[in-house]
Recover the amino acids of this structure.
Protein backbone atom coordinates (compact mmCIF):
# COMPACT_ATOMS: atom_id res chain seq x y z
CA UNK A 1 0.00 0.00 0.00
CA UNK A 2 1.36 3.43 -0.84
CA UNK A 3 1.52 6.15 1.78
CA UNK A 4 -0.26 9.40 0.81
CA UNK A 5 -1.41 12.69 2.29
CA UNK A 6 -5.21 12.68 2.55
CA UNK A 7 -6.70 15.24 0.14
CA UNK A 8 -10.01 15.25 2.02
CA UNK A 9 -11.37 13.95 5.31
CA UNK A 10 -12.78 10.44 5.52
CA UNK A 11 -12.94 7.32 7.66
CA UNK A 12 -10.53 4.43 8.16
CA UNK A 13 -11.75 1.33 6.29
CA UNK A 14 -9.93 -1.21 8.49
CA UNK A 15 -12.20 -3.70 10.27
CA UNK A 16 -12.83 -2.54 13.83
CA UNK A 17 -11.51 1.01 13.40
CA UNK A 18 -13.79 3.42 11.53
CA UNK A 19 -12.08 6.47 13.08
CA UNK A 20 -11.76 9.74 11.16
CA UNK A 21 -8.84 10.52 8.88
CA UNK A 22 -8.33 14.29 8.73
CA UNK A 23 -7.45 16.32 5.64
CA UNK A 24 -3.65 16.57 5.37
CA UNK A 25 -3.01 13.51 7.54
CA UNK A 26 -0.57 10.82 6.34
CA UNK A 27 -2.38 7.53 5.63
CA UNK A 28 -2.15 4.30 3.65
CA UNK A 29 -4.25 4.05 0.49
CA UNK A 30 -5.17 1.26 -1.90
CA UNK A 31 -8.09 1.44 -4.31
CA UNK A 32 -9.43 -1.97 -3.29
CA UNK A 33 -9.39 -1.28 0.47
CA UNK A 34 -9.57 2.52 0.77
CA UNK A 35 -7.73 4.75 3.26
CA UNK A 36 -6.27 3.47 6.54
CA UNK A 37 -4.29 4.88 9.45
CA UNK A 38 -0.52 4.36 9.54
CA UNK A 39 -0.67 2.30 12.76
CA UNK A 40 0.13 -1.38 12.33
CA UNK A 41 -3.25 -2.46 13.73
CA UNK A 42 -5.10 -0.64 10.93
CA UNK A 43 -2.55 -1.38 8.23
CA UNK A 44 -2.65 -5.16 8.75
CA UNK A 45 -6.36 -5.53 9.62
CA UNK A 46 -8.92 -7.21 7.39
CA UNK A 47 -10.96 -5.00 5.09
CA UNK A 48 -13.96 -3.51 6.83
CA UNK A 49 -17.04 -1.99 5.29
CA UNK A 50 -16.36 0.67 2.69
CA UNK A 51 -19.45 2.90 2.34
CA UNK A 52 -20.66 4.19 -0.99
CA UNK A 53 -20.35 7.98 -1.42
CA UNK A 54 -22.94 8.25 -4.20
CA UNK A 55 -26.41 6.86 -4.73
CA UNK A 56 -26.33 3.62 -6.69
CA UNK A 57 -28.27 0.45 -7.48
CA UNK A 58 -27.67 -2.72 -5.44
CA UNK A 59 -25.89 -5.38 -7.50
CA UNK A 60 -27.93 -8.17 -5.87
CA UNK A 61 -31.53 -6.94 -5.58
CA UNK A 62 -31.49 -3.88 -7.89
CA UNK A 63 -32.91 -1.55 -5.21
CA UNK A 64 -31.78 2.08 -4.97
CA UNK A 65 -29.07 2.55 -2.29
CA UNK A 66 -28.69 6.08 -0.82
CA UNK A 67 -25.19 7.51 -0.18
CA UNK A 68 -23.50 6.01 2.88
CA UNK A 69 -26.10 3.24 3.32
CA UNK A 70 -24.42 0.47 1.30
CA UNK A 71 -21.14 -1.39 1.01
CA UNK A 72 -18.72 -0.67 -1.84
CA UNK A 73 -16.42 -3.22 -3.48
CA UNK A 74 -13.79 -2.18 -6.03
CA UNK A 75 -12.31 -4.65 -8.53
CA UNK A 76 -9.80 -3.89 -11.26
CA UNK A 77 -9.75 -5.80 -14.55
CA UNK A 78 -7.33 -4.77 -17.29
CA UNK A 79 -6.64 -1.34 -15.77
CA UNK A 80 -10.39 -0.61 -15.53
CA UNK A 81 -12.03 -0.24 -12.13
CA UNK A 82 -15.46 -1.68 -11.44
CA UNK A 83 -17.47 -0.41 -8.46
CA UNK A 84 -20.07 -2.80 -7.01
CA UNK A 85 -22.56 -1.56 -4.39
CA UNK A 86 -24.65 -3.86 -2.17
CA UNK A 87 -27.38 -2.63 0.16
CA UNK A 88 -26.87 -5.04 3.09
CA UNK A 89 -25.20 -8.37 3.92
CA UNK A 90 -28.62 -10.04 4.12
CA UNK A 91 -29.91 -8.54 0.87
CA UNK A 92 -32.98 -10.24 -0.60
CA UNK A 93 -32.42 -11.26 -4.20
Amino acid sequence: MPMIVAAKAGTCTAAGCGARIRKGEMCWFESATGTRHLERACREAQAGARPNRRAATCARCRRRVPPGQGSLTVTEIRRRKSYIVTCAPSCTE
Observations:
- The first helix runs from residue 40 to 43.
- The helical segments are 40-43.
